[in-house]
Amino acid sequence: MILKQLVKTSLLAVAATLALAGGAQAQQYFRIGTGGTAGTYYPIGGMIANAVSVPGKIIATAQASNGSLANVNGIAGGSMESGFSQSDVATWAQKGTGIYEGKPNVAGLRMIANLYPESLHIVVKKGSNIKTVADLKGKRVALDEPGSGTLINARLVLLAYGVKESDIKPEYIKPNQAGDKMKDGALDAFFFTGGAPAGAIAELASSGAGIELVPIDGPQADGLRKSSGFFAVDNIAADTYKGVPAVKTLAVGAQWVTSDKADADTVYQITKALYSDAVQKTLAAGHAKGKYINLQNAVQGVGIPFHAGAEKFYREAGVLK
């Protein structure tokens, strides 16, 4: 009798262990590479990670990074399951064009969703007398860190306006550091590509002397759009930043990308959760760019293949044929 009870107890313990092991196996961890903490990727990534996580099934986490290029390379290297990227960087990486020409491409890069437009900002101190991109010559200008989409965009914009990197005094720092240096009078301007309003810029606009935004328009911007089709005409509305009038600029799409090796069911469940009514309301209320993260925008401006899990959801939802 005692022996039978011992055997029964042992079998129950083994069953419990197997159930726990099965539960641990079933739970998927899904890291999302974002950007610097002062930009737009980071807070949006945190909101999305919280919204799509299902304890015991899928745990999504947002992690700070150097931005688009770093995220794409992180996905390729396996240090993260997914990440945010500008549409230009994602397309170049997957196809082996642009900055990836002559380098190994990331053929397995796949789309989860197009999220929202990212505005190109050129921030200067109010009253600085820097009115055009050409006025940046001879000035101290922050272009963002290596690995960021902002740095790539800044170089393209400067080139379009006939400004060489050697014509300015470049610094390669994040927008929050650039904002601090501008406050201290140690920097004249900085570039930032991201959803408006960006925290670091909003803070700068509300403190001290205030800021101005340099427009990116005219024939140079038109030429840039023709040569780089991922750029779109954009307008940063008046008072997006305190005391700053409306300004014409360019934008690229912010996109959530992953690897073709990511589990199809996990990506399907995450995509489905992202566009649920509850999550859509949370995103729209949580950030100015959250209202752009909707089912109609999800499949716009996509230059790389969809992940099989995301594609399955979009076909079910009727936004992909």
Quick recap of the structure?
Helices cover 40% and strands 21% of the residues. It is α/β, with parallel strands linked by helices and 321 residues long.
What does this structure look like?
The chain has 321 residues and is an alpha/beta fold. It has two domains: 27-116 and 254-317, D-Maltodextrin-Binding Protein, domain 2, CATH 3.40.190; 119-253, D-Maltodextrin-Binding Protein, domain 2 (3-Layer(aba) Sandwich). The chain has twelve helices and ten strands. Strands 1, 2, 3, 4, 5, 6, 7, 8, 9 and 10 form a ten-stranded mixed sheet that branches. α2 (41-52) runs antiparallel to α10 (277-286) and α9 (264-274) packs across α12. The radius of gyration is 23 Å and the shape is globular. 45% of the residues are buried.
Reconstruct the topology from this structure:
Blueprint: H1 2-26, E1 28-33, H2 41-52, E2 58-63, H3 68-77, E3 82-86, H4 87-95, E4 109-125, E5 140-142, H5 149-160, E6 169-171, H6 175-183, E7 189-194, H7 199-205, E8 211-213, H8 218-227, E9 232-236, E10 247-259, H9 264-274, H10 277-286, H11 295-298, H12 308-317
Parallel strand pairs: 1-2, 1-3, 5-6, 5-7
Antiparallel strand pairs: 3-10, 4-7, 4-8, 4-10, 9-10
Helix pairs in contact: 2-10, 9-12
What descriptive keywords fit this protein?
321 residues, alpha/beta, D-Maltodextrin-Binding Protein, domain 2, ten-stranded mixed β-sheet, 12 helices, 10 strands, 21% strand, globular
